Amino acid sequence: MKTLFVILVSLFALSVKGQSRDTIFANEHHNVALFFPEKIRQAVVGAENFVFSYNQEHPQYFGLLKGSTGKSTNLLAVTLDGQIYSYILKYATELPKITYFIGTGESVGNEQPATITEEKTPVRSKNSKDSIQRVNYLEKLSAYYCSISKGNLKHKKTDGIVLKVKDVFYNQKDVFVIFEIVNKSTIEFEPEFLKLFLSTGNRRRNASYQKLLQQPLYTYKFPEIVLPGQRKRFVYVFPKFTIGDKDEMVVELRETMGNRLVRLKFKK
């Protein structure tokens, strides 16, 4: 997975050829602070002689960079709004600055531009009948699994919002994940998105830790709003994936209007 990620980063760098990337200097004696315009969702560095620390449990706007002698490398960061930031990292005994305030204009792109274009451009083909049958098939199975699910694999409560992973069902080439949102707060909750990642590597060593976003094939009854005291159950269908012994699934649920973000990790 790490090799694939490096290849993707290299291809991305070629796609933004001509755009300047700033160089950030660091050493082992100072904490170099980077403040982003949006909270950090994920960040990785390309070499072990640099470490970028940020709050993965409760996303914040800043992270701290340290480095030791060795080859220069790069930092790739993705914020909660999907904006991508890329910088060259170099070691220096004397630092030109120890605090960086990063503006939105420094973003080199967004992680999902192609997906948005595809959704706005419907494609008609002779297999459209098969596509409709496929959707009907996924809908029926989702409704069935949603109705029989009685488990509770994992749950997490943040600011009165409880996110539950009720169950995971494998059916041929599809994975059905049953979720439930319970609003135990006094304020209505409007979900902006729910995302599922496969994570691998050591979270304490950012250079080896990766989170790969899984794109759903189909969603069933994802709620537009959850009122105080309500619970809403829904289903996400993904292409079948495998999980290694050291891998885990990470789920992120974010509010549309507000700062509530629920993140939980589980294995199946």
Structure overview:
It is a single chain. The chain has 268 residues and is α+β, with helices and mostly antiparallel strands. The chain has three helices and 18 strands. Strands 1, 3, 6, 7 and 9 form a five-stranded mixed beta sheet that branches. It starts with a helix and ends with a strand. The N terminus is likely disordered.
Short description:
The chain is of the alpha+beta class.
Structural class: alpha+beta
Helical content (DSSP H or I, runs of 4+): 10-25%
Give the C-alpha Rg: 21 Å
Distance between the termini: 19 Å
What is the residue-mean pLDDT, rounded to a whole number?
83
Give the SSE order as H and E letters: HEEEEEEEEEHHEEEEEEEEE
- List unreliable stretches of 5+ residues: 1-20, 114-126
Strand content: 35-45%
Sheet with the most strands? Answer: 5 strands, mixed
Per the principal axes of the C-alpha atoms, what is the gross shape?
A: elongated
Tally of DSSP helical segments: 3
Strand tally is: 18
